[in-house]
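Reading a protein record of the kind used here takes only a little practice. Each token is a code from a learned vocabulary of local backbone shapes. With that in mind, consider the following protein and its fold in token form:
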Amino acid sequence: MKGYVFHGPGRAAWEEVPDPGLRDATDAVVRVTAVTVCGTDLHILRGDVPEVPPGTVLGHEAVGEVVEAGSAVTAVRPGDRVLVSCISSCGRCPSCRQGMYGQCRGGGGWILGHTVDGTQAEYVRVPFADLSLHPLPGAMADRDAVLLADIFPTAYEVGVLNGGVRPGDTVVVVGAGPVGLAAVATARFFAPERIIAVDLAASRLEAARNLGADAVADAGEDPAQLVADLTDGQGADVAIEAVGVPGTFEMCARMVRPGGRVANVGVHGKPVTLHLEDLWIRNLTITTGLVDTRTTPVLLRMAAAGRLPTSRLVTHTFGPDGMQEAYDVFAGAAETGALKIVVGEEPHDVVAVRDG
């Protein structure tokens, strides 16, 4: 079979790799029908995740069909169409028993495309299949379902739920990339008074409006002043950081009101200054986290009911052999306008985020 293989910083290729097989009784093998590329995959290619060894098949999000299941697997069987979660869960360790699947100590957590071969291949071995695969409704398209493997649970859990979004809140989402846009969409579940999206790219701000943002601000034009103007000088109740650079985290800390919450979602590759000399007196709550995907079943039901704008985030789709082109388009998002890309068996085209 073929897979997208990491060969070291700056080097990867779509090439022949061995077919996966069952290693443990809790494994399943899935024939992949759709995958997407994550910003984390780009971090790996840049050498920012040194624990990924050369020779690893990348990817941690997929939709596919179970072709083989281990003797201990009871929740899925061959022929089932499934969502492959970005997080694998043993279900037995102390972390998993608390619902913190991302912190699994029994061999799970974020392992696909990280410490074991991932999903950007024709087939993938999925450990702990009973808790790491989710059966899909027959009517749900691949391009809808695959976005529930990572970005929607991440935005919802690490951004919206950690941020404690409540009815009547002012919510600022800094970074209108895929996760930030998913945060805009899922924050609406809690009826905030307003959602403000902040980004440098006009196209992403327009996408944020289409997905439910009530106001948008160019990150280079003092968005803190807009937040102050809209809140009578109080500041936001919740700021969701969805970029992962020092400046955006500090921006979030400045924009929240006393007693407000900062939910950090972005993956930071450089140290960030925590200005406790200013923040200690303001009663702020700051949260961080790796997604646990405990809300994936709920989000799947919401998507099946048409309550999540999933495929509206997909701007480019490619056929099965389009993996390298997909990476090029996604890595060049500033020029291509890419939000999420899907590589799969469904007919491929280029689409745009539509008005809701």
Notes: The longest strand covers residues 28-36. The radius of gyration is 20 Å.
